[in-house]
Specification:
Elements (H helix, E strand, L loop, with lengths): L14 E3 L8 E12 L6 E11 L3 E3 L1 H9 L8 H16 L3 E11 L2 E10 L15 H4 L4
Antiparallel strand pairs: 1-4, 2-3, 3-5, 5-6
């Protein structure tokens, strides 16, 4: 049997049905190795993306998300544009209740750039936060 062909970068983001659509719960994706190029200089740019999402009917399939992020590797993109485009593309296929993308761009010319973009489904409001006090053994204060 021939081996599976290697995966290729793709702008297609695949979804699957949310297994618990009756509940608000946070799905977090960490993408620590994002790369693209500066559209002005052609030099590589590197970023760590964090995606926090409360799904509605659909969740993001991980391999397609990986291939989607990989598709930017040889593209020129300003930090602000690429962060907002990624948000728009995920919203387009998942229609989440809420999503926040935080892109922490590595230093360039002595300047770090952080770009945060959010989308909230019309009418959706988060539940009040629950503050659960930590125990002393969780904070490292126990001796």
């Amino acid at each position: 049997m021939p081996p599976n062909p290697p995966s290729q970068p793709s702008k297609d983001i695949h979804v699957f049905p949310n297994p618990a659509p009756e509940r608000d719960y946070v799905i977090q994706f960490q993408v620590p190795e994002f790369t693209c190029h500066c559209p002005l200089t052609g030099q590589p740019d590197f970023a760590h993306f964090t995606i926090d999402m409360i799904a509605d009917q659909y969740c993001v399939e991980l391999k397609s998300l990986k291939m989607y992020f990989w598709s930017y590797r040889n593209e020129g993109a300003f930090h602000e544009k690429v962060t907002n485009t990624i948000l728009d593309d995920i919203v387009k296929v998942t229609h989440p209740r809420y999503i926040r993308i935080t892109a922490k761009w590595y230093v360039r010319g002595g300047i770090y750039t952080n770009v945060v973009a959010e989308h909230r489904k019309k009418g959706w409001m988060p539940l009040p936060a629950v503050d659960i006090p930590s125990h002393s053994f969780e904070s490292g204060l126990l001796r």
